[in-house]
Amino acid sequence: MEAKGGGRDTASIVAAAWQRHTVVPAFNIPYLPMMAPTVQALRDTDSFGLIMVARLEWVKFAAKSPEEVAGEYWRIGDRAHTRLHLDHVPVIDEDHLRVDYVDDISRALDAGYESVMVDASRLPLDENIAATRLIAGMAHARGAAVEGELGAVMGHESGPMPSYEELFASGKGFTDPGEAARFVRETGVDWLSVAVGSVHGAISSATRHEKKIEARLNIGRLGEIQAATGVPLVLHGGTGIRKECVLDAVRHGIAKINIATATRQPYERFINESLAKAQRAVYDAAVRVLREDLETAGNAGVLATCHGGAASGRTT
Question: Domains (ranges, CATH) in the chain?
């Protein structure tokens, strides 16, 4: 099966955002009831965004499966404002276990995901390239766009995180521009997820409710990566970074930004009171991200014009 809405269409929309120096927010759905208010927030702000799920969200949260998320998306997704994306499918997961990533991504493609991410960043460079190239070939043949990752975006590993200030000062794990150029050239990815200072939200049951580390970004390194690769770049761990820093990153090549903690924590905070309160909290948080943090309100129309019809593809 080809991607139901056209993955090359998704690639074109993200490329249009990159060229126009706006950004496509990608919202994680660790709990299925979060999808409806997220889609509504995108619609009400006339923003374009991706609805997505990562492997850890059906393993460690309650997304159930990539097929369940896809089924919900094809039921309620608004094609004028959204596309369906598969977030992190690691080759080696946060518990340092090997994953059958080819099977996971094949299942997602069968379910109609229009873009996919393979994360082989825990492997040596040559192995990362080989694994990512394999997925790029497989996904492109089925009409889906592909995201790879190079560098170490911290936060998902178990145990205490090393000192953020020491990591940032040393640049340990940051994406190397020369390696990034080779990676993009040899894999054929559409987008590259980079490590320039952001961190993922914690996922362990003991820490997932805590306030995120206030991260910042090395804009100089980001600019070097952009110049070396010439493709749209992706920022994971988008919650909790100062607005000025994020908008500067968009001007230096970030075309897709992942949002998880900002909407997940409000849902978890209110779900024991009522589903309606939890969904309202997700909606309010998503609107705040779109209008205030990312300033994407109205960009769905801009991207539709630039792309020649962002609302093309299957309708709901």
Answer: 7-307 (3.20.20.70)
User: pLDDT 10s digit of each residue in the chain, 316 long?
Assistant: 566 655 569 999 999 999 999 999 999 999 999 999 999 999 999 999 999 999 999 999 999 999 999 999 999 999 999 999 999 999 999 889 999 999 999 999 999 999 999 999 999 999 999 999 999 999 999 999 999 999 977 645 555 556 555 665 555 679 999 999 999 999 999 999 999 886 754 444 444 455 545 677 899 999 999 999 999 999 998 787 889 999 999 999 999 999 999 999 999 999 999 999 999 999 999 999 999 999 999 999 888 666 554 443 333 3
In sequence order, the 6+-apart residues with CB closer than 8 A to the CB of 43 are 78, 80, 81
Q: How far is the C-alpha of 73 from the C-alpha of 83, rounded, in Å? A: 9
297 CB burial (10 A radius; 0-12, 13-18, 19+): middle
Question: Is 44 an annotated catalytic residue?
Answer: no
Query: Residue 79 carries which DSSP code?
Result: T
Can you tell me the distance from the alpha carbon of 7 to that of 220, in angstroms, rounded to the nearest whole number?
Answer: 31
* Distance between CA atoms of residues 112 and 63, nearest Å: 17
**Sign of torsion over alpha carbons 278, 90, 236, 254:** negative
Calculate helix-pair angle for 7-20, 299-307, nearest 10 degrees: 110
Nearest CA to 102 out of 137, 55, 62, 135 is that of 135
Phi, then psi, of 23 in degrees rounded to 5: -140, 150
CA–CA gap between residue 166 and residue 252 (Å, rounded): 24
What is the pTM for the complete model shown? 0.88
Catalytic residue of the set 9, 87, 176, 190: 87
Note whether 301 and 14 are within 8 A (CB): no
Q: Which helix (H) or strand (E) holds 280?
A: helix 275-288
